[in-house]
UniProtKB/TrEMBL annotation:
InterPro entries named among the record's database cross-references: Thioredoxin-like_fold (IPR012336), Thioredoxin-like_sf (IPR036249), Thioredoxin_domain (IPR013766)
A Pfam family reported for this protein in Swiss-Prot or TrEMBL: Thioredoxin_4
Gene3D superfamilies per record: Glutaredoxin (3.40.30.10)
Single GO molecular function: oxidoreductase activity
Name of the protein this chain belongs to: Protein-disulfide isomerase
Region of interest called Disordered, as start-end residue ranges on this chain: 1-25
Length: 265
């Protein structure tokens, strides 16, 4: 199915459907470069960064293979991993609200969420220990999606997933607004440099060897088995939230979940 170019006006309420799925879900929106950088600086003084700055290289390497929970969830709440040293997570492991994000690096609606809404969520909720965000690969837009997802895991192996995610979406927002960015290997390497990935040779080798290819395919299968068919799609505690909703809608949902979690509720 040919990829569609989406106008900026359409981005506020559409998702990118899987190439073999009928378009039916609506997309989400989000800025993160400064928020993620600030979150990393805050470190132990604010909230854990999933992989934690004190995590060893071995933990980062192991974490880069994370796909989903260790066992198939018997209810939607168990979709969330909530594991220490998860390089694909931002926020405290025991945060009262956790938001699973099923996303694609080649999705224009995911770009919008990352560059317009994600940073606000980090600033308002993650920093205060109220929200944990967990990334899940759902590379549904063909080979360039898969390549970028493998690159994300190669960055995660060096403890730099969120820096890479931020740099990639910022580049996509600049170079291909409203379009599928379809980054090449050389472009992904350039983005990794911008993100501060320390060993670029290892980053390239991990991608070219297909080291994380099986993990990406397993993650895709996991998302599809949960009924996902478009990106981005979110699970906030037990609520499935598809679509490019404005920040205010996320705030409403998260605040509602925080009220439920409050003592006496």
């Amino acid at each position: 199915m040919p990829k569609q170019e989406i106008s900026p006006e359409e981005l506020h309420d559409d998702t990118t459907p899987a190439e073999d799925a009928e378009p039916k879900k609506k997309s989400l929106a989000g800025p993160i470069a400064l928020a993620v950088a600030g979150a990393i600086v805050v470190g132990a003084g604010g909230y854990a960064l999933g992989h934690n700055q004190a995590a060893t290289a071995a933990r980062a390497e192991q974490g880069a293979h994370i796909v989903g929970p260790s066992a198939w969830p018997d209810n939607i709440a168990k979709v969330h991993r909530r594991v220490e040293h998860d390089p694909f997570a931002l926020g405290e492991v025991d945060a009262p609200v956790v938001m699973g994000m099923f996303s694609d690096f080649d999705c224009p609606f995911c770009v919008k969420f990352a560059t317009e809404t994600e940073g606000q969520l980090i600033d308002e909720y993650v920093r205060d220990g109220k929200l944990r965000i967990e990334w899940n690969d759902f590379a549904i837009n063909g080979p360039t999606s898969v390549l970028a997802a493998e690159a994300g895991r190669a960055a995660a192996a060096q403890g730099a997933f969120w820096e890479f995610q931020s740099a990639l979406y910022e580049r996509a927002n600049t170079d291909a607004p409203g379009k599928h960015p379809e980054f090449t290997l050389d472009q992904l390497i350039d983005i990794a440099r911008d993100a501060g990935v320390s060993d670029i040779d290892a980053f390239r080798a991990d991608i070219e060897s297909g080291r994380f290819g099986a993990d990406v395919m397993l993650a895709n299968g996991y998302a599809a088995a949960l009924g996902m068919n478009a990106t981005p799609t979110f699970i906030i505690n037990e609520q499935v939230v598809p679509g490019a909703l404005p920040y205010e809608k996320f705030k409403e949902i998260i605040d509602g979940e925080l009220e439920k979690a409050a003592p006496g509720e």
